[in-house]
Each structure stands twice: as C-alpha cells, then as structure tokens.
C-alpha cells in the first residue's frame, strides 16, 4: 500500500471516522461539530479531500474507510523508519528506547513477536 500523507487535523478526522464507521455524513457533521468545533462545510471539505486521497469513501451519504486504521498506521510507521532510520528497525528501536524505558510487559510482548517471527522464518 502506498503511503498517504495527512495533516494532523486530517488524521484526527480519519480517527473519528474509524471510531464511528460506518457513519452517515449528517452524523459525522454532528460529531465533528462536537469534537472539533467544525461547521458543516469544513467537515465536507475534509471528507472530500480524504476521499480523493483514497482513505475514505462516501457512498450514498454513508462514510466509511477504504483503508483500515491498522493498515494506515502500519504504513506510516514503515515510512518513518524508512525516512528517518534508513529502513533499520534496530536503529529505530535503539532511538526509541534511548528516551523511553520499556516496561517488562512491553519487553515480553516484543520478545513474543521476535520468537513468532523466528518460527515462521
């Protein structure tokens, strides 16, 4: 999947859709008014832009995603590692853990992923 670049406000809007989908466009306007203090034209403008980017769809007034939240953030994470760490996951982990101590639970979860990968590979 190709990376889709979103501004912070567009990403927040997409999060709202993912949390509520499928949602009628009218209800989406109400949610955005409450959570983002947007007026109807703003909601429809951002919706149109994200539909053009291929992230969302609006079919007969029902808004849903074309790409899941998990897929989107997975690709975004891969792009960050590629752009900032020359594609090196170990370099990313080293940088991440130099500023944030991992809990035992997090270390155990990561170890389980590594063990599962070793079994598959």
Report a brief summary of the structure.
Pfam families: Penicillinase_R. The chain is mainly α and 121 residues long. Helix content is 67%, strand content 8%.
Task: Describe what this molecule looks like in 3D.
There is one protein chain. The chain is mainly alpha-helical. It folds into two domains: 62 residues, Winged helix-like DNA-binding domain superfamily/Winged helix DNA-binding domain (Arc Repressor Mutant, subunit A, Orthogonal Bundle); 33 residues, no CATH class. The protein is built from six helices and three strands; from the N terminus they run αβααββααα. A three-stranded antiparallel beta sheet has the order 1-3-2. The radius of gyration is 18 Å and the shape is elongated. It starts with 7 loop residues before the first helix and ends with a helix. GO terms for molecular function: DNA binding. Keywords: DNA-binding, Transcription, Transcription regulation.
Could you list some keywords that capture this structure?
2 domains, 3-stranded antiparallel β-sheet, 3 strands, elongated
| Integer count of domains | 2
Largest sheet entry: 3 strands, antiparallel
Mean pLDDT score, rounded?
Answer: 94
The amount of helix comes to: 55-70%
The CATH homologous superfamily of the largest domain is named Winged helix-like DNA-binding domain superfamily/Winged helix DNA-binding domain
Q: Under the CATH scheme, which architecture of the largest domain would be assigned? A: Orthogonal Bundle
| Shape annotation | elongated
Overall radius of gyration: 18 Å
């Amino acid at each position: 999947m190709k990376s889709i670049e979103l501004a912070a406000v567009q990403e927040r809007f997409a999060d709202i859709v993912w949390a509520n989908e499928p949602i009628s466009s009218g209800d989406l306007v109400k949610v955005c008014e409450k959570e983002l203090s947007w007026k109807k034209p703003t909601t429809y403008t951002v919706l149109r832009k994200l539909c053009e980017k291929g992230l969302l769809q609006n079919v007969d007034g029902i808004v849903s995603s074309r790409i899941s939240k998990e897929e989107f953030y997975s690709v975004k994470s891969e792009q960050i590692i590629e752009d900032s760490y020359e594609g090196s996951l170990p370099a990313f982990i080293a940088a991440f853990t130099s500023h944030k101590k991992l809990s035992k639970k997090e270390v155990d979860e990561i170890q389980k992923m590594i063990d599962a990968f070793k079994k598959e590979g």
